[in-house]
Amino acid sequence: MSSREDILGRVRAALHRNAGNAATAREVMAAALANRNPGPQPAVAGEPRALLERFRLKSEQASSTVDIVATEADVPAAIAKYLAAMKLPTSAVAWASLGALDWAGAGLKVEARGARDADLVGITGCFCAVAETGTLMMTSSPDTPAAVSLLPETHIAVVQASRIVAYMEDAWNLARAELGSLPRAVNFISGPSRTGDIEQTIVLGAHGPYRVHLVIVEG
Amino acid sequence: MEIKSMRFKANSEASLANVVLQGNLKNAKGKFVTKRAEAIKELDDFEGTRDAAAAIRNKVIDNLDLWLERFETKAQETGAQVMWAKDGAEVCRLVTEIARKHGVTKVTKSKSMLSEEAGLNQALEAAGIQPVETDLGEYILQVNDNEPPSHIIAPAVHKSLDDVADLFHKVHGTPRKTEIPALTREAREVLRGHFLTAEMGLSGGNFLVAETGSVALVTNEGNGRMVTTMPKVHVVITGIEKVIPTLEDLSTLMRLLPRSATGQSISNYFSILTGVKKPEEHDGPEHLYFVLVDAGRADVVGGEFHEMLRCIRCGACMNHCPVYQTIGGHAYGWVYPGPMGSVLTPLYAGIENAIDLPHAATLCNQCGVVCPVKIPLPELLRKLREKQTDAGLRPLTERIGLRVWAWVAQRPALYGLGASLGARYLKWLAGGNKSIRLLPAAQEWTNGRDFPAPQGQTFREMYAARRKSAAQGDAK
Ligand code: SF4
Fold this sequence. Notes:
The structure holds 2 protein chains of 2 kinds.
Chain A: H1 3-14, H2 19-35, H3 48-61, E1 65-69, H4 75-85, E2 91-94, E3 109-112, E4 121-124, E5 128-130, E6 135-139, E7 154-160, E8 164-165, H5 168-179, E9 185-189, E10 194-195, E11 203-204, E12 211-217
Parallel strand pairs in A: 1-12, 2-3, 2-4, 4-7, 5-8, 7-12
Antiparallel strand pairs in A: 5-6, 6-9, 10-11
Chain B: H1 8-17, H2 19-40, H3 46-61, H4 64-77, E1 81-85, H5 88-101, E2 106-109, H6 113-118, H7 120-126, E3 130-133, H8 136-143, H9 161-172, H10 180-197, E4 200-203, E5 207-209, E6 214-219, H11 223-229, E7 233-239, E8 243-244, H12 247-262, E9 269-273, E10 287-293, H13 316-319, H14 322-327, H15 338-349, H16 366-370, H17 377-390, H18 396-409, H19 412-430, E11 435-436, H20 443-447, E12 451-452, H21 459-475
The structure holds iron/sulfur cluster (SF4).
């Protein structure tokens, strides 16, 4: 007997499985998968301004820094200013979806491609953002490779204010509506990577970025 | 991993006598507890969320066979391969075969308690494949001669900064560093090289989502993302009980897991991985394998301990356990310490191999109160004790002692006499002090603490005196 049959067989026996109770259980399962009821959620005010403020506050609590600009065209200059203030390099790798912005005009050298170990700054967008916890939702695709938010020491994410939702459950619904099925990788990111494994002292920059900077586009 | 739980008493005595360990435990003790208390305040309906989480876990466990089949079908549709392992040996065999098939020489690992259960690192090494632990805590333990973890969330919580400084100086051959950020950076640089060169990444799984056939991983360091993004093969090793129905259920559980574990509102990274890389994609594995492991779990289904299968491995029960706080994790002798370990070890490794563990608790119910999925841990520990007694596994002296006590307890006059003599004897031992330094017949009690001396009268004497004065009052 295969291990699969052995294991499932013992589970079935323990649950006294028969055709009758299997049919009932399948109905319950189908209902659970169709209804997808959320559990209790903490209150999050839903007006756009309140969502933006909460997202900003929670992101800062997760040790990200936040900048707000009026339009997407302002993004390259805002990022250039941040990099200069932090004395960080001016060349970066970015998602292809951001490749069309006028980076050169802001004095930056930005390449749209997958990330390499030597990249020090990675610029991404995000699928949406969750106000409840100050979290970015990244969905992988050829144009939005996962490693750009992971390998570089600095991760800069461009967030459209209109894409800030209240709860993670809203993010799932958005993904179902816009993407159909889940992409290979959904990464929720809340601040720079960290560890507390030595004496429970939090240190930023464990294996991923040391710093996460968010540029929220209001327009 | 070898089961050393039968040495619980000796292990815990050694832990109590270990000055360095006691210092480290004292440092760690409060941090998790305070942070968790703060974090759960953010939830308007913490109790309601706990109820919902318990219901989600029950829903699956009550029909585990069907949910497993559903998950398997979905995962296969996404291009993943699903394998089943009865025990640790089969886990080792399957993972070694996968590694051989893809010509793997190095495996980067994100934390997996099941791989500890199976002793997978040793098996891979024996097959000539290099396993590299990448969680900072696990890495520290691996380079320290494969020391076992002492906590499920913070595996190296028993190590001090000095311990790690000495260790890195020795194994990396670098100048000794004394700052935690510098030590973390050193490990980052060593491990970055491994992330980029390993052909296979291995992870556990916090949850398996039946709706989408995905695995969900909760991490802070980013190592979980590395091992599931950079290598061409990703293997998930996880227990069969980890399935949950929907992405919404995942969100509910996620409100509780990081808060209960580390006191974070959410972990830094939360990755939901589904299927393999598309040809045009820049990163991600080309091959994804799920190894679904029984190793004792199937036999817990439907039985008197089935509630334990709800466990989401947050570690809150050990963080709040006075026994764990005092002796640390190693004394428990296997992979899982604290109250959850005292239930899981006898269930998975054999009740006869962990005689003392169900007794390594005061049944104060701190664990039951904090458990995010409402597992009645003290009740399960008590049931295990009953099982041991029924199976005649307790020592003869204890069994005779309990018989004698039961016989006396059924004879009130004799019991009263015994209690009052006992109380007088203890008072005499205390010699006018409030506590007793050394109990002659039970030295274990007083080795690490004083025994409070009885004060005043016994309960029965007080009760009798009250009755008497009440009767006199009535007579007047
Ligand atoms: S038993 Fe409860 S508190 Fe303990 S690790 Fe499991 S889920 Fe957490």
